[in-house]
Each structure stands twice: as structure tokens, then as C-alpha cells.
Amino acid sequence: MVKIRLKRLGYKKNPTYRIVVIDSRSKREGAPIEELGYYNPKTKEMKLDKASAESWVKKGAQTTETVAYLIKNCDENGNLVYNKKSEQKLSKKALAKLEAQKQEEAAQAAAAAEAAAAADAAADTADNEAKESEA
After folding, report:
1. For a designed S-S bond to 7, which of 2, 18, 105, 126 qualifies (C-beta 3.0 to 4.6 A apart)?
2. Beta carbons of 76 and 50 less than 8 angstroms apart
3. Is the pLDDT of residue 13 over 80?
């Protein structure tokens, strides 16, 4: 089976990868059928021959999850379109604290709504008493 996968290059703790088409039974650093591009995860720099990659997929080559993500998120020139996640992961303590704050704010809003309703009711009764005294 032919796969499109990453071939690791670079030295210790500084990986760079080549995106290659290779037989699935060969080693990670084995001789590729074709090199499609490169990817540096530290700098988010990538160059990919997208047309060639898509043609290999149409021929039946299987992509790894990472390579499928890279192919999907590259522009027409083969550069990575990297979107930073806007949502930030929080610890359990931070989530509990945030939830407690939300509940406290909701309780304050409910209390303010009750106070406003009570003030409106008091104003209505005062208006009704004023109308009755005029009559």
C-alpha cells in the first residue's frame, strides 16, 4: 500500500519533516517514491505540491492524519494556513472558579431583577392609591 506520510529530519528536539509518498512497509527514513514538500512544526512553515498530493490520493494513496490535516489546510501555493485556536484550555480549578463566578453573577442578576420588580410593584401600588384618593 502506498502512503503519504512524514519523514523526520533535523536534530534532537528540533524536528523538520518532508512530506513523502512511500510504500507503507518501508522504514520511516526509507527511500520515497516522490517527495511532495516539507513542514517545520516549530515555525509552522510548509511548502507542499498540493496538486501532486491530491493526484496521489486519487490514485489510492492513504494519508496519515497529520498529512491529511496539512493538505486540507494549505493554500493554492502550498503554504500552511495556520489558524490559532481562540479557545484556551483551563485547568479543573480554573474551570470551577469560572463556573462559580458565572453562578454568582447569575444570582446577582436575579436579585437585581427581583428588586426592580419589587420597585415596579411599589410604584404601581402608589399610583393606584393616588388615583383612589383623587376619586
Report:
1. 18
2. yes
3. yes
Tell me, what amino acid is at 79?
A: N
Residue found under cell 472558579? 97
Would you call 117 helix, strand, or coil by DSSP?
A: helix
Question: How buried is residue 2: exposed, middle or buried, by Cβ count under 10 Å (0-12/13-18/19+)?
Answer: middle
CB 51 within 8 A of CB 29: no
> 30: Cβ–Cβ under 8 A, 6 or more apart, which residues?
22, 23
For residue range 81-132, list pLDDT tens digits in order. 877 666 778 888 988 999 999 999 999 999 988 888 888 877 777 777 777 7
Q: If phi over 0 gives left and psi between -120 and 50 gives alpha, with beta otherwise, what is residue 51? A: alpha
User: What phi and psi, each to the nearest 5 degrees, are found at residue 123?
Assistant: -65, -40
- Compute the residue count for the chain: 135
